[in-house]
């Protein structure tokens, strides 16, 4: 669709640019002109040879793909906003997450450390707990469906999700799911269960630390044959995460780790020896930061080379202000409002901020989610700021409080420090 910018769905969602394509359709960057916010729009294409009955099944699956995550409330599950039927096919409007997938990170940088993989596993377990409690089985958990947005890990693509209260839409003889990550019992034709999702989590964590899934072969049939007949090779790079991964990859669902036992083993693996030194930021966080601030950098006229140079610097710029200390939540302004160019305080636990200093080199001052009541202060002469949920943060610029926004409304702005008022 070379003229995608002219297409507006349901009189409000404008297609802006293509983000990627998959087997079932295309994902677009879009703009919700009613709420003035960026969104992701998934265009689902219907095969040309579908019968009328098959088209009905396809539409039902589309609605289920939207309804599954829409029923769930978790920062680790992508948020769905709307479903639109336009031009004879369905479109799903959802939260725009400008971040790499786990698959992309593995392809780009190689296997993750056990600590980084464990952090991802912890949040995916949390997402699965919410889904399973609601009676929803994802059925397609794999690295390409896991986005890494700073410290946030987001499970996406519920296209194969199964709800205990819905009718199965999978045809007899049609294999659903990704062979390298599907549980053995599902590959054998049994109904997917929460235990099946836990197998897929184990295969995903295996791929995270080893660089490949446990049973990946040259083709689908070879992969399914290995899944049915071969023993899982113990991961060589999992470290303390090894017992979690092998426990999740038990072929018998009854012997496989339950959610509670997996969470317990994972916490013990992550606790490890304690020291007074703060661990380095996960490698995937830097990749997510680059994706998050790309739009800001482009708007400031900074080239890709300058961005890389800025990201490679160790530590903040010499003029960077250290993060503020935790303060009590309240209605009054926190200390430092009058003397700093920018002050941000978390109104809720969803206050995420990305703050950069634009210029010949771009310095990232913050890319974090603040605990409720905690504040950050910055006194640089010029700043670029992105706040994905403006209702979650209180913001003061040059001593003046900025108006808040609706839940989920994204605010992006440039701060220029004034000489008056501090």
Short description:
By secondary structure, the protein is of the alpha+beta class. Helix content is 29%, strand content 23%. It has a six-stranded antiparallel β-sheet with strand order 1-2-3-4-6-5, covered by helices on one side.
Structure description:
With 422 residues, the chain is α+β, with helices and mostly antiparallel strands. It folds into three domains: 4-94, 2-Layer Sandwich (Phosphorylase Kinase, domain 1), CATH 3.30.200.20; 102-271, Orthogonal Bundle (Transferase(Phosphotransferase), domain 1), CATH 1.10.510.10; 283-416, no CATH class. The chain has ten helices and 18 strands. A six-stranded antiparallel sheet has the order 1-2-3-4-6-5, with helices on one face. It has a four-stranded antiparallel sheet with strand order 14-11-16-17, with no helix packed on it. It is globular. The N and C termini lie far apart (51 Å). ATP binds at residue 42. GO terms for molecular function: ATP binding; protein serine/threonine kinase activity. Residues 256-279, 401-422 are annotated as: Disordered. Keywords: ATP-binding, Kinase, Membrane, Nucleotide-binding, Serine/threonine-protein kinase, Transferase, Transmembrane, Transmembrane helix. It is an enzyme of class 2 (transferase).
């Amino acid at each position: 669709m070379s003229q995608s910018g002219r297409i507006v769905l349901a009189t409000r969602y404008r297609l802006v640019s293509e983000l990627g394509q998959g087997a079932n359709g295309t994902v677009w960057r879009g703009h919700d002109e009613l709420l003035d916010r960026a969104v992701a729009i998934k265009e689902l294409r219907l095969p040309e040879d579908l019968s009328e009955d098959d088209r009905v099944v396809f539409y039902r699956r589309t609605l289920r793909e939207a309804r599954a995550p829409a029923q769930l409330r978790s920062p680790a599950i992508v948020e769905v906003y709307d479903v639109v039927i336009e031009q004879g096919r369905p479109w799903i409007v959802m939260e725009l997450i400008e971040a790499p997938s786990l698959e992309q990170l593995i392809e780009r940088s190689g296997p993750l450390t056990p600590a980084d993989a464990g952090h991802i596993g912890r949040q995916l377990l949390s997402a699965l707990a919410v889904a399973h409690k609601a009676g929803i089985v994802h059925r397609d958990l794999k690295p390409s469906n896991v986005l890494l947005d700073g410290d946030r890990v987001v499970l996406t693509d519920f296209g194969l999700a199964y709800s205990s209260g819905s009718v199965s839409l999978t045809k007899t003889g049609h294999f659903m799911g990704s062979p390298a990550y599907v549980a053995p019992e599902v590959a054998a034709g049994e109904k997917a269960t929460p235990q099946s999702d836990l197998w897929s989590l184990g295969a995903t964590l295996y791929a995270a630390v080893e660089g490949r899934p446990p049973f990946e072969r040259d083709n689908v049939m070879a992969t399914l044959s290995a899944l049915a007949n071969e023993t899982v090779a113990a991961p060589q790079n999992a470290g303390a995460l090894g017992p979690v991964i092998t426990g999740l990859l038990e072929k018998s669902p009854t012997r496989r780790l339950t959610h509670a036992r997996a969470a317990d083993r994972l916490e013990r693996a992550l606790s490890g020896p304690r020291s007074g030194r703060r661990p380095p930021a996960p490698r995937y966080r830097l990749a997510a930061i680059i994706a998050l601030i790309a739009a800001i950098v482009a708007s400031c006229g900074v080239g890709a080379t300058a961005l890389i140079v800025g990201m490679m610097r160790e530590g903040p710029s010499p003029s960077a202000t250290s993060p503020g200390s935790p303060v009590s939540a309240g209605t009054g302004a926190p200390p430092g409002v009058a003397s700093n160019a920018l002050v941000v305080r978390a109104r809720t636990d969803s206050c995420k901020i990305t703050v950069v200093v634009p210029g010949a080199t771009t310095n990232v001052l913050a890319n974090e989610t603040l605990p409720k009541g905690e504040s950050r202060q910055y006194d640089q002469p010029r700043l670029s700021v992105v706040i994905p949920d403006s209702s979650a943060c209180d913001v003061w610029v040059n001593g003046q409080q900025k108006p808040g926004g609706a839940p989920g409304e994204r605010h992006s702005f440039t701060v220029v420090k004034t000489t008056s008022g501090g």
